[in-house]
Every structure is written in C-alpha cells, then in structure tokens.
Amino acid sequence: MSTDPDMIVAGASVRLPGHTEVVRLTSVISGPFWKLYFERTDGTTDKETLSEEELADLEVVEVQAVLPLDGDPHEFRLAIEAHRIKVSFAHDMAALAVSNI
Hints:
- The protein is built from three helices and five strands, in the order E-E-E-E-H-E-H-H.
- By secondary structure, the chain is an alpha+beta fold.
C-alpha cells in the first residue's frame, strides 16, 4: 500500500503503522523523517516520527477539505503574544522588555 504525501496534512484522520486506532493529525512536518503530531479519540495528544519507508504503511482515512477560519481574532492575538513571550524568555530576555503585555 502506498500513501500520497499530499494527503498527510493537519486535520486528516489517519491510522498509523502498527496501530488500529484512527487519530486526527494536528501538525505535520515533512522531511526524510516525518514528524506527525496527533490527537487521539480520548483527547490526548502525542507525536510519532516516521521514515519515508514507514510512511507508505500509513492509512489516510479522511482528509478535511477546508480548514475553518472562524476563530476569535482577539484570542488568536493573545495566543501569538503568549507564544512570542515564551520563545523570547527561552532565548532572549531583552525581548521581554519590549512586550506590550
């Protein structure tokens, strides 16, 4: 069985090699080793790294056609600012001094 790499995207429901449970991908980073971040049916999150050879055994169950863009823009801005502060704190304390929060 071969899997089309274009179908392995965030939002797709897949069955990972060696597993019977269907999971929903939340993030995908492609490369020689694919990093797949996913959410299980019980709501827990996990990640798995697959090689190009293992990727052929991944079964795509369903692909979400269009991602919804109906989120609250104010909450999005807060989340981005929080992430920026978190990254800045880990790498550059001076960046925190210019924060608006």
